[in-house]
């Protein structure tokens, strides 16, 4: 098995960081042989989630990892912030829900773009982990 | 900050977004374009986004809002060249993210703009010697 690509850790603090993060996500998925449709979905999901960080928490982190193994190619992205957290996660995951006048596509829209989507949130720590995978 | 060139072709404005924009640059583009449309009383605007390989909900909103603003001023708008993967992603993410009129490419977009402008019977358009 080939070696995994090095992880990329990015600080998220302004709108230029959104661009950097989505480029990095696209680049890694491209290097791992994901098709353009997957690359675009992943880059867009990262864009949405990092924008949430800036909008709701101000600053945060984005970690892009290659978790591929012999069976499949996997890109996992973890986006964290220490903001106020999401009061009602179940509500936030419902289509059409937004606390900001529908500025973004919301979490449900973002979830549809990736293979796995995990979110946990409490005051001081919100973490979203998204994954795209394809057979090796 | 990147500034997007706005080209003028008689009473039509052409904009081609060649680079991934930050949120601030997108807002700057919006106000530059709306101001330019007002300044020259443009009859049509073609926005080419062939080069954009990510259009997230924010950028989609900026594009939509810009199109609505330009229409409010009195110009026709055409969004040209949305990449297939961008179209797929936008629709999967949520309906109605792009509501403006679209064309495959700048060429088709310009033709459609001209047809629409001609249909409005704006005499100044012919006065300017275009077509």
> What is the highest CATH level, the class of chain B?
Alpha Beta
Distance between the termini of chain A: 10 Å
* Approximate helicity band of chain B: 40-55%
Number of domains of chain A: 1
CATH homology superfamily of chain A: Histidine kinase-like ATPase, C-terminal domain
How would you describe the overall organization of this protein?
Chain A: Keywords: Kinase, Transferase. Chain A: This is Serine/threonine-protein kinase RsbT. The complex is a heterodimer of chains A (136) and B (131). Chain A has 136 residues and is of the alpha+beta class. Chain A has one domain (8-135): Histidine kinase-like ATPase, C-terminal domain (Heat Shock Protein 90), CATH 3.30.565. Chain A is 36% helix and 29% strand. Chain A is built from four helices and five strands, in the order βααββααββ. Chain A has helices at 15-31, 36-57, 89-92, 106-111, and strands at 8-12, 60-66, 72-81, 116-122, 125-135. In chain A, strands 1-2-3-5-4 form a five-stranded antiparallel β-sheet, with helices on one face. The longest helix of chain A is centred in the middle third of the chain and has 22 residues, at 36-57. Chain B has 131 residues and is of the alpha/beta class. Chain B has one domain: 2-Layer Sandwich (Transcription Regulator spoIIAA). In chain B, 50% of the residues lie in helices and 16% in strands. Chain B is built from five helices and five strands. A five-stranded mixed β-sheet of chain B has the order 1-2-3-4-5, sandwiched between helices. In chain B, strand 3, helix 2 (57-73) and strand 4 (76-80) form a beta-alpha-beta unit. The longest helix of chain B has 18 residues, at 23-40. The N and C termini of chain B lie far apart (36 Å). Chain A binds chain B through residues 15-16, 18-19, 22-23, 26, 36-37, 39-41, 43-44, 47-48, 51, 95, 103-106, 109-110, 112-113, and chain B through 20-24, 53-58, 61, 83, 85-86, 88-89, 92-94, 97.
């Amino acid at each position: 098995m080939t070696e995994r690509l090095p992880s990329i850790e990015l600080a998220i603090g302004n709108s230029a960081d959104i661009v950097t993060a989505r480029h990095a996500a696209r680049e890694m998925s491209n290097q791992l042989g994901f098709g353009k449709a997957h690359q675009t979905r992943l880059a867009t999901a990262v864009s949405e989630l990092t924008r949430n960080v800036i909008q709701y928490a101000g600053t945060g982190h984005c970690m892009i990892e290659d978790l591929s193994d012999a069976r499949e190619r996997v890109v996992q992205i973890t986006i964290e912030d220490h903001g106020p957290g999401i009061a009602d996660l179940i509500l936030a995951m419902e289509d059409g829900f937004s606390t900001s006048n529908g500025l973004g596509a919301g979490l449900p829209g973002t979830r549809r773009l990736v293979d796995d989507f995990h979110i946990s949130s409490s005051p001081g720590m919100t973490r979203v982990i998204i994954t795209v995978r394809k057979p090796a | 900050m990147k500034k997007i060139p706005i080209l003028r072709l008689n009473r039509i404005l052409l904009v081609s977004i060649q680079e991934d924009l930050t949120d601030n640059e997108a807002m700057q583009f919006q106000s530059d374009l709306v101001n330019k449309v007002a300044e020259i009383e443009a009859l049509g605007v073609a926005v080419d986004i062939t080069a954009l390989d990510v259009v997230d909900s924010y950028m989609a909103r900026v594009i939509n809002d810009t199109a609505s603003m330009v229409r409010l001023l009195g110009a026709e708008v055409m969004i040209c060249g949305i990449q297939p993967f961008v179209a797929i992603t936008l629709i999967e993410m949520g309906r109605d993210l792009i509501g403006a009129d679209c064309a495959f490419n700048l060429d088709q977009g310009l033709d459609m703009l001209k047809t629409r402008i001609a249909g409005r019977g704006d005499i100044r358009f012919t006065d300017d010697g275009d077509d």
